[in-house]
Amino acid sequence: MEIADLLQRCADQLDGEQLDAADRNLLEQWNSRVRWLATETIEQFVATPLADWESLITAHAAHRHVWYDFFRDDITIDEAAAFLLENGNYPAFLRLLEKIAEVQTCKEALAAVAQNIADEHEPEPHAELMRRLMQAVRARARHDLTLSQHPTLVERTLVFYYGYYCNPWHLVGSVFATERMGTRRVACMDQGLRRLGLSSHELAFTTIHSQCDDHHASDWLERVIIPSVVLQPDLRRAIAEGVATCLVTSNDYLTFLLRRVVLERAQSAQQWLPRTIQ
User: Fold this and answer.
1) Element at 188 (helix H, strand E)
2) Confidence tier at 17 by pLDDT (50, 70, 90)
């Protein structure tokens, strides 16, 4: 799968921060296609006052997706492990913030991003808290769990690599959308994982993010996006494209996950039916 190979190369080059010209061209071509698929959503954001962007995000299907209700109420530990572990190529959030900080020209925006970076280390590095969570889930799941790089996951993740390597203002939009959707997402994950037996110590990542995602989302809009667009109005579309492609690819990804679980459960139930019933 060509885009899966591209994703892997993007992940492998993150420390060096550079893709070769051929891969950058592939990433631009990929983004052109995804941007076209998200055209309606992009134009909706471009035409809407910036102050109302949060409402557009929370009204989108990606934010309201039933996958998170399913995660909270019904997911098994193996299904949760597949969801979390398959995201191994998702770029470290701190690296995304550092890339965004490089292009800030407004003092208020730079201060807000710097605060967000500082928050990633409080009360201890969030990357370590996430690693603790992943280890706890992995330890409870079956050892022969099959992980896959399905196309919707690849596309959802490439949105962030496109912003990182090609357009940091596009990345601003994707990170803003992710933070705005974080409160519901993280709360449902926290409740689901507690139901599956994880401890408060193991769930420190979800606890901390449940407390700060709303604040961070407001900061992105009020202290980064709005003042930056006031200074440079042409940034509006790039940021809108980052928001929209993040929403559209996230919704496709979550829909795939739900359909996969339904299919796998149906197949499992069929295998256990007595022959006389089959």
Assistant:
1) helix 168-195
2) low
**Residue 13 falls within a domain, yes or no?**
no
Write down the pTM of the prediction: 0.93
- In sequence order, which ranges of the chain are alpha helices (DSSP H)? 2-12, 21-37, 39-47, 53-59, 66-73, 77-85, 93-102, 107-119, 126-140, 151-166, 168-195, 204-219, 226-231, 235-272
Q: Which of 187, 149, 165 is nearest to 63 (CA)?
A: 187
Contact 75, 198 (CB under 8 A): no
Q: Which domain holds residue 173?
A: 2-7+19-266
CATH number of the domain that 156 lies in?
Answer: 1.20.910.10
For 64-107, write each residue's pLDDT tens digit: 999 999 999 999 999 999 999 999 999 999 999 999 999 999 99
